[in-house]
Structure formats: C-alpha cells, structure tokens
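Predict the assembly for these two chains.
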Amino acid sequence: MWAFPFRLRPTYASKFLPKPGYSCVVLSTHALRINLDTREEETLLNFEVPVRSFTKLDGVKSEHALCVVSGNSNKNAIITRLVNRYAFLGDISSARITFNQIQKKDAYLWNSMLAAYVRRGSYNEALECYRQFLLSSDVQPDFYTFPPLLKACRSLSDGKRLHCMVLKLGYEVDVFVSASLVHLYSRNGLLDIARDIFDCMPLRDMGSWNAMLSGYCQNENAYEALDILYSIKSEGLKMDSVTICSVLPMVAQLNDVLSGLMIHVHIIKHGLEFDLFVNNALINMYAKLGHLADGQYIFDCMVTKDVVSWNSMIAACEQNNDPITACWLFRRMLSVGEKPDLLTMVSLASAVAQVNDSQSALVLHCYCTRRNWLSDGIVIGNAVMDMYAKLGNLNDAKKVFDCLPAKDVISWNTLITGYTQNGLASEALEAYWLMEKCEYVSPNHGTWVNVLPACAALGALKEGMRFHGLVTKNGLFADVFVGTCVVDMYGKCGRLDYAMSLFYKISRISTVPWNAMISCHGIHGHANQCVELFEEMLDAGVQPDYITFVSLLSACSHAGLLDKGKLYFQMMKEKCGLKPGLKHYGCMVDLLGRAGHLEEAYQFIKDMPIHPDASIWGAVLGACRVHGNAELGAFASERLFEVDSDNVGYYVLLSNIYASAGKWELIGDVPTVDYSEMKHQPGYIINQGFKNTCNCGIFLKRE
DNA sequence: CTAGGGTTAG
C-alpha cells in the first residue's frame, strides 16, 4: 500500500505584488507594501524563498522583470512569481519574455508557463511548451505538470499519450492528476474508462466527484448523475458551486422544475447566490424551463455580471418569445460597457429575425463582418443565415452560406429550411441535392423534416419515395417528426393509402401524426375520414390541440358539414379548454358562409372577442360572391381594404359580385390602387397584373 | 504552478 501524497497549498506571493497606488518591497524574509499616499507599510507575507536583493516590483511591465532579475541569486523564484503574475493579468507575451530569461529552468518554472498558456486557452502553445519541457532533459515533469496539461488536450490521442506518461511516472496516485484524467475521458464520452479511474481513486476530493458528475451530465446520463449526487450526499459532502453548475443544465433538460427549485434553495442556504457561474446557470435553467421572470429576477439581483450573464439573459428572452426585451438588453449591455461576443450575436440574430427588422439585420451582419467573426466559426454564420432566411431575404442568406468557411449539417439545414419556409420548395430540393454531393455531411433529422415537406408541396412523389427509403435506411422513421413528415408527404402527394398504412406504424402518442393525417384527408375533401380519425384520436386518449381543430374545422367547412363544424367548435372551447384563434374563426365564418348563412356569419364576426383580419373578411366576401349578396359583400370589402388594401384577389371578387348582381355602375366604385406610389415596391408588378385581370374578368364576360 | 462549471438551427 503506497502513501497518498499530501501537499500543502502554498500561499501565492504573486497575489500581493503590483497594485496601483502602492509600492512593493520584497525583502529576504518577507514582502512589504507601501501606500504611496500615506506612506503606511503593510507586511504581506513571509516568503519561503530567500530573496536577497532589495527589489521594487511596482509595475507589470517586462522591463521590471529584468530589473528584478539583475544581480539576484535566486532568479528562478522571482521569475516564476512574475510569470504567474503576468498569467494572472492575462499578459501572456510578457510572461513568455520573462520565462525566456532563464537558461536553467526548473520544473516549477515550466509548470508556471504551461499553466499560463492553459489559463489563456492557448492549448496548442501549452502542448508545445510541454514538448520543449521534455526536451530539456535535466528536469522531469512533476505532479503539477499534468492537470493543466490534460486540460489542454483537445484530442483523445494526445490525452492517451499523456495518460501513459502519468502511469510511467507513477503520478496517477495524485488526486488532481487522476481527477483530470477522469475529466479527460468523460469529456470525450468514454465514461466507462473515466469511471474505472474514478473508482480506483483511494481518496476523492470535491473536484474528483465533480469531474465524474459533469461527465455524466454532459453525456446525458441522468441516472448515473443522480447516483453520484446521492453518493456525494452520503459521503457527508455538500454540493458546491461547480456541482450545481454541472447539474442545473441537466435539470433543465429533464424539465424537472421541482429539482431546480430545490437546488435553488440549496444555493441560497449555502450562500452561493453571489457566485457568478451559479447565477448564470440559474438564468439558463429558468429560461429553458420557460420561467423567464425568475431568470430576469436573478439577473437583476446580480451585482457583478459578465458577458455570459448578458448572453444568457438575451438568449432567455429570445427563446421565450420576447425578442423586444432581447434587443433592449443588448442596448443596455452596450451602454454599461460590456463587450458583446460571438454568442451575443447568435441570440441577437434570432431576436432580430423575430421582430422582423431588416435594417437591424444588416447592421448586425456588418458588425460581425467587421470583427471577422463570420470567418472564425460556422455557428455565427449559421445564425446570420437563419436570420436572413427568416426575414425572407433568401438572396443574402445564400450569399452568407456561400461565404461560410466550412459548412456543417446545420448550415445546409438552415438553407433548406429557409427555402421551404419561404415557399421555395424546388430550391429546397436543389439545395438538398447539392448537400448530398458533399461527402463530409450527412443529412439528419432536421434535413428530412424540411425536404419531405418540400416534396409534399411540389407533389414530387418519386423524390419523396426515395427520401422515404433513405429515412428508413438511417433508422430515422422511428422519429415522430420524421415519420409524420413521410406520412404527410404521401398524403399530400395523393397516396392516402400509403399514408394511412404508415400512419399506423408510427408512434401516435402526440398530436403531431394525428394532425397531419387529419389535414391530409381534409385537403382531399374526405371530411368523413377526418371526423373518424378525430374520434379515433379521442378514443386513443390523445388531447387535441390548436392545429387539430384548424384541420378539422377546415375539413368541415370544405365539405359543408355545418352541424359537425359547430359541434367541434363548441367542443374545442368547452371540453378542451382551447381559446379559438383567428384561424378557427376563419374556418367557422367560411363554414357558415359556404352554407349560405351569411347573416349568421356576420353576427358571428360581431361576437368575436378578437379583431377580425383579412382572411375572415375574405371568407365573407367569397361567400357573398357565391350566394350573391352584394350589400354584405360591399361592407366586407370596405373592412378588407382597411386591413389589406394591396391584395388583388379581393378587388376581383368584389367586381365579380357587382357584375353578377348586374350592378355595372358600381364597378367604377371599386377602389383602385395608386400605382405611382407603388412603383418601387415589390408588389408593383402584381398590382399591374390586377388592372388587366379586372378589366378582362368583367368586360369580356359582358360581351 | 494544479481540477471541476455557463451561452450555439428547426
């Protein structure tokens, strides 16, 4: 049995060195700090390293380092302290200059330089430094060398090589070294190896437990993570801030509000509520759980905020449908002097798209381009592209896409989604074909849920069938969304038989597949099948939602099932507790109108709790055209021109109503669009088209 | 001189 190494944590002299307004004096036995204003002296600490010379360390510039070193017999000790000080201040080049001044470096000095690189995130430089360390054959790496070095290993093969070195030198007995190994393996998903090392540790400090726990949390192993949490408790240890930061994202992912609240209580009970990381994690958790106000409260209470706090809050607003606040927070962030980073822009891009602000979109794009962020990583490029696509600006989205330094599945999916969402189904398929040619990207679930609807929109059955094959091959048919898209594609392409048989092969716990199937039957006018499916859905215990009723009511209106439609509308309000939206009211007006109950439809609109939009009045107008009610038609069109004066179709409808009622003199009263103002607008061509349609539609008929 | 933690499409 070997003895477990036990080391005291040294007090860091570097903490006490330079400070504005003070002069530091380092004596052989202790260090002094003199306040330059009051001349008061303060003893800082006793050094374990003898420093013979009288030294002033009043600044942090490298010249001072030189002045310290000159004539000092214990250069290594001073240099090492300076390297650490520079590392603490983030001045890596000064640290390196200072480091290079010593020819005969000891392990302590090498370790300091290594740690300085790792602290800055310069991992490759750290590994290079280690290589030089090994080459300088006179000294060996020690316990302190490996933990930062293992953190610097981005690739598993480097990590394994270091692991061998650790074993060769017998350093696996160190708590920090083995905890770093645990972390290395769990970060790379090799949880079994990590667990083996963890289990072999004879002593575990909080850091070891946290390393194992974060491994489980990040690899979505909730069960094992809980087990570790339980063990921590039974060892008599308490969750510290790091434990909490690992666990909170998992709590959010499991949508476990109760555990989240319990951890929040723990935080307050143990005085961790002032920890920056803990607060940031709490904001993120509450945002993911949809409790925006709680996140906002934490954010407002935070005394010190960093860029991550701002980013988290902006993302929280953006993800909880409050893009206006997200934009406002961004302005606040700038005004308090916090520098936005790449991830700020990722969230902001999404917020800008949600508020539909093309001007800001351009500004944001320029902001990122100026900082060269678009060539740095794909994440921000994808976000900017998505923003343009959501604003309907596919040209710029494509331009950003073409300029991306590398394209991943998300880039391709964003482009394809952009096309699909903007009704450009054939462009979406073309983009998919280009994607298929790239060997290094393979389509995923996000690809199929866009490509299949594109096929459905185009009626491209043959392509759709090919995609169905690929989906099955990749085992993605089992995914509810992908499976539903396949069913929907067959349904929309007219193969309701295939759609139905596949429908019964997918999981029908959620409303998604039911809605798709009901809508497909509705589109083909099979209202009775819709009703049957709906009843079946209720029998299966699936609670219908907003979309279910849109499909169902629209099927009823197309088939003229007046009573059924009314029944389901009541059912939605009373039994299902759903508040009808504009779409539902639209269906009902259409239903009443088509059945010729124009007065009832009008009464229905008057009783609506929400303001009717163009689609509602459009439905009335259409019904007036069919049933020849010129008076109500005129009234409806007045309302219509108030809300949507540019839509050509409505003018045509009104003209036709007058024409069929024989009221030719009124056709001149149909308001026309003032083209002079519209010449520069995208709708101009369409409106010009309207002029001809109106004339042809009416006057040819008369002759 | 050492670990462990946070934000990324649909």
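The first strand of chain A starts at residue 22 and ends at 26. The CA atoms of residues 491 and 520 of chain A lie 5 Å apart.
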